[in-house]
Each structure stands twice: as structure tokens, then as C-alpha cells.
């Protein structure tokens, strides 16, 4: 039997379960990003403070999109932190102040999320669920690019400047940060 949007009900239920798992992991990811944004210290503070904010703003949008997709499939999205804690495979990143460690945590978190997105993509394809296929495909493309950039940034921090593309991208980002610092410093004088 098919649901309202023409997808087999059993396949839609299975997709809803997998999407709820992704939702729980994104909620934990979001919370980790907030903590990193608030608590990061050190020489990368300005650039990472902004980057973590950009990432958590994106994560909160994805949380909403995933929950709405579950509803579209006639499922019920998880919506309590106790459920998220039970279901999420991502763990809390508590008390992290070091920038490199924070980026490494984000990379690890993204690596798990992309595995889950690929699993859902495959399942959605088998169910002929174009809406979920499209959503996961978009997420995977974004996550792949973000992982590439974050890994390149980690290499840059470690002194491996051979990755010229990332150095160029990061220098634009850093020059904006430097400009902000200059303005703040000028204000203090």
C-alpha cells in the first residue's frame, strides 16, 4: 500500500527511522557546534568562531528539513533531547577550547553524517523517493566540499602549505578577520 505521496508505506517507515537517526545526529552536531563556537580560544578564535557559527546555522536548517521530510513520509520526527541522546551516535564535545581539536571533532562528526546520508540515499533510491534522494544528494555534495575544506584547513594549520587552493580560500577568510581585528584595535586606541 502507498502513502499520500505515492511511496510504499513500509519503505516510508524504514526511511523515517533512518531519517530520525540522522535528525538525532544532526541535533547533537548542532549542539557540538554551538559549544565550539562559544568556547573556542586561541589564535584561530576569530576565524573559527565565525566558521562554527556558519556551520551551526546550516545544521539548524538541516534539522528542520529532515524533520519536515519525516512528516512528509507520514512519520513522526523525534523532538526531545532524551530521544536524541538515545539515538545519536555522535557524542557530546564538551569543554573543547583548542581550535585544531574543534575542527577535528567537526570533521569526525561530518564523516559520520555523510555515511548516514549515503545510506539514506540508497534506501530512498530503492523506494523511488525522489524527495529524499534529492535532499540527501544535496547534503552529500555540501558535506563532501566542507570535509575537503576542513581537512585542507587542518593541513594548513599543521604547516602543510602545499594545498594552495585552501590557502587561497583561507587567506580571503583570514584577511576579513584581520580587517575586523584592525578595526577593533583602531577603536581601542
List keywords for this structure.
Ferritin, mainly alpha, 189 residues, 6 helices
CATH topology: Ferritin
Number of strands: 0
Q: Ranges with pLDDT <50 over ≥5 residues? A: none
Label the CATH architecture.
Up-down Bundle
- In terms of DSSP E residues, the strand content is under 5%
Characterize the main sheet. none
Termini Cα gap: 72 Å
Rg (C-alpha, Å):
19 Å
Shape: elongated
Q: Which range best describes the helical content: under 10%, 10-25%, 25-40%, 40-55%, 55-70% or over 70%? A: over 70%
CATH class membership:
Mainly Alpha
Count up the domains.
1
Let me know the average pLDDT.
91
The succession of helices and strands, N to C, reads HHHHHH
CATH homologous superfamily - what is it?
Ferritin, core subunit, four-helix bundle
Our count of helices gives 6
Broad structural category: mainly alpha
